[in-house]
Automatic annotation (TrEMBL):
The lineage of its organism: Bacteria, Bacillati, Actinomycetota, Actinomycetes, Propionibacteriales. One of its GO terms (molecular function) is inositol monophosphate 1-phosphatase activity. This is Inositol monophosphatase family protein. Its cofactor is Mg(2+). Keywords: Hydrolase, Magnesium, Metal-binding. GO terms for biological process: inositol metabolic process; signal transduction. CDD domains: IMPase_like. Gene3D superfamilies: 3.40.190.80, Fructose-1,6-Bisphosphatase, subunit A, domain 1. The keyword Plastid does not apply. The keyword Magnesium applies. Mg(2+) binds at E65, D79, D82, D210.
Length: 256
């Protein structure tokens, strides 16, 4: 598999998606569940990127958040607008996230932030970049100095039960770390961990379109990425724990 070539394809695909976001208004919202929605832009970006990938790499399946697709084998995984709630409120923290899964592992990814002007990219063995410049994750060694990002709290019918563990973790983290941050987009949180802005990221969910591109970018930036149980992260993992090695042990103990 020529990952360098596929990374260029991914970059071109995301560029097409970015153009869509810059030429359309939010439009009508489609509600998918309790406080969970997609905008017209989500669907338009997904269709544009999917069509491009199907032309350029017909041998690779495509799984998109809004319209589904390939669920096994080598596949592209696309979140056309990660952080839709931020997007519809005018908050500039949202991203187009395109990852590549091969043999059960995230091997490449491109994450573009149209409102911020930053594009992160990586492929296994080729390093990680932001706007073409090499990036490296945090070298933090003291939990008291750590800026730690956490994923969103859940919404929906099971939210109270699901959020109990998240709230308990928050209570354990607050007295031990410098600060916590929740920014509303998994893709951005992963790229900011890869770039060393965050010293760790803990998410209690792992939808592949949200996470696979960012996982590949983090790993290539030298960040350890695990499941919440400490095993190596995989597409079927329960959550995401991306962390600087210097604070991995004490944070894992807090995860319980």
């Amino acid at each position: 598999m020529d990952l360098a070539k596929l990374l260029k394809v991914a970059g071109a695909a995301v560029e097409r998606g970015r153009a869509v976001t810059q030429s359309r208004a939010v439009g009508e919202l489609t509600f998918k569940g309790d406080r969970d929605m997609a905008s017209e832009v989500d669907f338009a970006v997904e269709r544009e990127v999917r069509a491009f990938l199907e032309r350029e790499t017909p041998e690779i399946g495509v799984l998109g958040e809004e319209e589904g697709g390939a669920t096994d084998g080598t596949r592209w995984v696309l979140d056309p607008v990660d952080g839709t709630v931020n997007f519809i409120h005018g908050v500039p923290l949202w991203a187009i996230s395109l990852g590549l899964i091969h043999e059960g592992r995230a091997v490449a990814g491109v994450i573009d932030h149209p409102a911020l002007g930053t594009t992160y990219a990586a492929a296994e063995g080729l390093g990680a970049t932001c706007n073409g410049k090499a990036i490296r994750g945090s070298r933090c060694t003291d939990l008291a100095d750590a800026l730690v990002a956490v994923g969103d709290y859940a919404v929906g019918p099971d939210a109270e039960a699901v959020n109990a563990d998240r709230a308990a973790l928050t209570q354990r983290l607050v007295p031990r770390v410098q600060r916590l941050r929740m920014i509303g987009t998994a893709a951005t949180a992963l790229t900011w961990t890869a770039n060393g802005y965050f010293d760790a990221l803990i998410m209690f969910s792992n939808k592949p379109w949200d996470t696979m591109a960012g996982v590949a970018i983090c790993r290539e930036a030298g960040v350890t990425v695990l499941d919440l149980d400490g095993t190596d992260h995989a597409p079927e993992s329960r959550g995401v724990f991306a962390v600087a090695d210097g604070i991995r042990k004490p944070l894992q103990e807090l995860l319980g």
